[in-house]
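--- STAGE predict ---
source: upstream dedup step, 1 unique chain passed
mode: sequence only
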Amino acid sequence: MPIPRTIVEVAEFIPIITFGYLGSSTALDIHSRLVISGSLALIVLVAFHLMKWPINSLALSTNFFLLIEGMAFITKIAYIAPVAAVLLFFRESAVFVVTFFVGIVRTVTSPKGLLDLEGGEPSAVRRGSLYMLLGTCVAFGISMVFRGQLALSAALPFFGLVVLRRVFRDIASRTGATRE
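--- STAGE serialize ---
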């Protein structure tokens, strides 16, 4: 019996949900939260890869963010540390930096683009993906303005990206695409 898509969609975001929960409900420092959430991100990414499940681009970017930060604290690898330092400087806004780079890679290399839309008309998917990249830049700007206020700097702009993704997927799907 296949696992319902809704459960899979929630599982994609377990690491970032855990990170938020640990920050609001426990006295754990940022390093411990990143190590725990980064470890969960690694588990999610490996599990999705092994099960050959597609992963939402937004979930992929948050998991990469947590994985990079968690790895930097666990391993102290020299070439990861500068990346982690830059991401820590941006604080919660860093997730949008990672989302932007994941978005560029997905837009350029995947026919599904940043919208994760299977079988769409390529120009509509590409256009929607480019609009999502623009939306990511706007989310980053909003996040930087409210840096330090978790709800305004991370949750609200990220929710905006989720809504934009849905809107652009719906628009692109009218050109004959199918949803995953």
